[in-house]
Amino acid sequence: MKRAILALTILAAVFAVPANALPPKSTSPPTIEGKFQVGETVTAGNGSWANNPTSFAYRWQRCNSSGAGCADIAGATAKSYKLTSAEVGRTVRVLVTASNADGKETANSHPTPIISDSSAPRNTVRPTISGTAQVGQTMTVSNGTWTGGVTSYTYQWQRCDQNGQACINIAGATSTTYGVRSDDVGSTLRALVTAQNAAGRTTVSTDRSAVVQDVSGTTVVVTTTAATNRAPTIQFRSLAVRRNRVYVRFQACDDSSNRVTIVARDSMAGRLSYTRRYSVRPAGCAVYARSWILVSRFRAHGRFVVSLRAIDSSGKSSRTVARSVRR
Questions:
Q1: What is the assigned CATH class of domain 233-326?
Q2: Is 160 in contact with 237 (CB distance < 8 Å)?
Q3: What span, in angstroms and rounded, lies between the C-alpha atoms of 68 and 61?
Q4: What angle do CA 235, 239, 244 make, to 5 degrees?
Q5: pLDDT in tens, 158-216
Q6: Long-range contacts (CB closer than 8 Å, 24 or more residues apart) made by 222-231
Q7: What are the boundaries of each domain within the chain?
């Protein structure tokens, strides 16, 4: 009897399976934390796992803006990853592989939001409006084409005179579509599209619509002066000097899609000024950032002044704006 019991005990020991003799199993997906902007570092969270994983490995992937079409990023196998310009306008995800003595399993995170550039979005093809400019009809605005990793768009419809000038916001008209109403008869319409990313926002206007007609198809005639090209405008946003490098931010506006020359002038009392030029294409209004190294004659103590002026392609100039700092 004792021998039979001993034999059964030995067999049970031989065929017993340890309680944790199973590979890891994901119970909640990995996560990604950080700021989703080029140059920033994002970090993987392991997620939750059953069956006591003893180690984790990581593999980062670059995906399209919808989070599909993912492919491995060469060499990106650490827990953290520094976002590069290759990710701008796209998304990333991380694959986490959990292992123990009995095997391994891989789980992937959800895709990140769209990765932003380090500067505000830039418009490359202006938005357009479509539809019939007649009371009761619906008009629609497109986003246009942008670079810089746009994360969201907002809209504002405007009512303008027959030449597309003197535009004012239409209260509550902030979607991609607009129902033409009797108040619009004899006017033209346009829409402002604002693109935003983690670094800032840029607003661009569409061209004007045809003159709005009433339901019968007739047009209210309004006598106006001929459309003229208006001078560009410029506003100083900020000025800073750090370790002999100048940093400026400014907003430039122009009523055409042509290039605008920004004239930046450095000056300091008792020293010859220094002028530099930049070319921008605001196509409405846009915010820009520029930086440069101070020339040696401005590296002394004193009040340092930067003045800005915008000149359009026809030669019309904005007023000069200036900011100063004491070094």
A1: mainly beta
A2: no
A3: 10
A4: 145
A5: 999 988 888 999 999 999 999 999 999 999 999 999 999 998 999 999 999 999 998 76
A6: 222/161, 222/162, 222/186, 222/187, 224/161, 224/162, 224/163, 224/165, 225/163, 226/163, 227/163, 227/164, 227/165, 229/255, 229/256, 229/312, 229/314, 229/316, 230/255, 230/316, 231/312, 231/316, 231/317, 231/318
A7: 16-108, 122-205, 233-326
User: What CATH number matches the domain at 122-205, 2.30.29.30, 3.40.980.10, 1.10.10.60, 2.60.40.2700?
Assistant: 2.60.40.2700
Query: What is the per-residue pLDDT for 228?
Result: 64
Cα separation, 247 vs 253, in Å, equals 20
pLDDT reported for residue 243: 86
Structure tokens at 16: 């017993």
Residue 124's CB is within 10 A of a number of other CB atoms, namely 12
Chain segment 65-89, per-residue pLDDT in tens = 999 999 999 999 999 999 999 999 9
DSSP code, position 5? H
CA distance 307 to 163: 33
Asked whether the domain spanning 122-205 has the same topology as the one spanning 16-108, the reply is yes
Query: How far, in Å, CA of 227 to CA of 247, rounded?
Result: 37
Tokens standing for residue 169: 């916001």
Fold classification of 16-108 (topology level): Immunoglobulin-like (2.60.40)
pLDDT-above-90 percentage for the chain: 68
- Give the model's pLDDT for residue 18: 52
Residue 9 has pLDDT above 60, yes or no: no
Q: How many CB atoms lie within 10 A of CB 96?
A: 25
131 three-state secondary structure: coil
For residue 20, count CB atoms less than 10 angstroms from its CB and return exposed for 0-12, middle for 13-18, buried for 19 or more: exposed
Q: Report the pLDDT averaged over residues 282-305.
A: 88
| Total-model pTM | 0.56
pLDDT band at 142 (very low <50, low <70, confident <90, very high): very high
DSSP per-residue codes, 238-275? EEEEETTEEEEEEEEEESSSS-EEEEEEEEETTEEEEE
